[in-house]
Design brief:
Layout: E1 4-9, E2 14-15, E3 20-21, E4 24-25, H1 26-38, E5 42-47, E6 55-56, H2 64-71, H3 73-79, E7 82-83, E8 94-97, H4 103-106, H5 111-122, E9 126-130, E10 153-154, H6 159-163, H7 174-180, E11 184-185, E12 195-198, E13 201-204, H8 210-225
Parallel strand pairs: 1-5, 1-8, 4-6, 5-7, 8-9, 9-13, 10-11
Antiparallel strand pairs: 2-3, 12-13
Helix pairs in contact: 1-2, 1-8, 2-3
């Protein structure tokens, strides 16, 4: 049977004191979608509220995978994202959380999201996230009371990248927050492609890393078939 992927997206469309417009960063959902689609996986979308999510970085639509997402089935499916509380996440082989600044607004403390990430991780399904998406891992506590990220090799949008991008808009620095909860954080050169797998947990640093996260997730899922 084909593997099933649930992409969980933010519903935020503004962030910070100046109401900077935001959403899901287009290549961070479009590039993984393309890889999952090529692997013939079933791809479903859920959002925190069930309302239509927002997209950012539409100026990057000339990229082939981004354009295919916008004009094909991807964006159409994302617009119809089901409310996360209505989804039986246990039927999915993996969950993936794309970034953009939006997740920094509604994902740091979302109780249901933390429960979903915990349960997905603990049943050895694959958990993937890229750029600001790893904020979904923040504050997740496992059954033993420890933070999920404690002792894990992970990455996310770095403090250095944030200082050159949205330091005035974000409520906190994600790298620092993950490190404070015990993550073994690995940063590559700013804006370079960089993704890490630690067991069934896969994270990527920035938009350039989204494809690599999906590839690593697929590698783990395919090895589990054997």
């Amino acid at each position: 049977m084909n593997k099933k992927i649930l992409i969980i997206v933010s519903n935020a469309n503004a962030i910070g004191p100046n109401n900077r417009r935001t959403g899901i960063f287009l290549p961070e959902v479009a590039h993984p979608y393309a890889e999952f689609d090529k692997a013939n996986y079933q791809i479903d979308f859920a959002s925190l509220t069930g309302d239509t999510p927002y997209l950012d970085a539409l100026n990057l639509a000339n990229d082939s995978d981004n354009l295919a997402f916008l004009t094909g089935k991807g964006w159409e499916a994302m617009q119809k994202a089901v409310k996360l509380s209505d989804v039986n996440v246990g039927q999915y082989d993996a969950v993936f959380v794309p970034g953009g600044l939006a997740p920094m607004v509604d994902m740091p403390e979302n109780v249901l999201l933390k429960k979903v990430i915990k349960e997905t991780y603990e049943r050895n399904a694959v958990v993937g996230a890229v750029c600001h998406g790893p904020v979904s891992l923040l504050n997740v506590k496992l059954s033993d009371g420890s933070y999920l990220v404690n002792g894990k090799n992970i990455t996310s949008f770095t403090d250095e990248e944030e200082r050159g991008y949205a330091i005035a808009d974000v409520p906190f620095l994600l790298e620092s927050a993950l490190t404070k909860q015990g993550a073994k954080f690995h940063a590559a050169a700013v804006w370079s492609a960089h993704s890490i797998a630690d067991g069934n947990l896969v994270t990527g640093q920035n938009p350039a890393s989204a494809k690599g996260v999906a590839e690593k997730m697929i590698s783990i899922l395919e090895s589990a078939k054997k």
